[in-house]
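Q: What changes when magnesium ion is included in the input?
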Amino acid sequence: MIEKVLSEKQIRERILELGSEISKDFSGKNMIIVSVLKGAFVFTSDLIRSISIPFKLDFVQLFSYGASKTSSGKVEMKKDTGIDIAGKNVLIVEDIIDVGYTLDFLLTHLREKNPASVDVCVLLDKVERRKIEVPVRYRGFEVPDKFLVGYGLDFDEDFRGLPYIGEIKEKA
Ligand code: IMP
Ligand code: MG
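A: The predicted holo structure follows.
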């Protein structure tokens, strides 16, 4: 059973706010959005349609082992950027930040390509779980330490298509 944590309406309204903030901040700048597959693809597709300035879009795919509910700490890159980001203003778009290993890895990796700047936009932030400090510039929602699915987020590749975000409740 899935218990709703964030509704479609809440998500939609917050994304409009994020989009207009990003549009203002990056106006006149050369922006490249780097979305993290697979989880962030739904968030990215809505967010980019709420951004009113020009940008280029690219994807990376990261992978932190296994079908467990916690990050293994070992992050690998399955797909790197295809667009040259040197001298550009990069905005990473990610679904959720938990302990921080994934984004820390990606920030380090992208900075080696000499972009003009790198900022992070996450839909969900499990603030209390953080083990590594990650500079998050845009945050959709702070969420409690629960395992969340839907709106792109999966558990063992299931539930990505739910239009809302929910928590899996185990049956007693
Ligand atoms: P971190 O490296 O611990 O910050 O974990 C971030 C990654 O773990 C995200 O990109 C997600 O793929 C996954 N993750 C963390 N928490 C959740 C969750 O509640 N639901 C689904 N995936 C999660
Ligand atoms: Mg992810």
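Observations recorded in class: Residues 127 and 142 are 7 Å apart (CA to CA).
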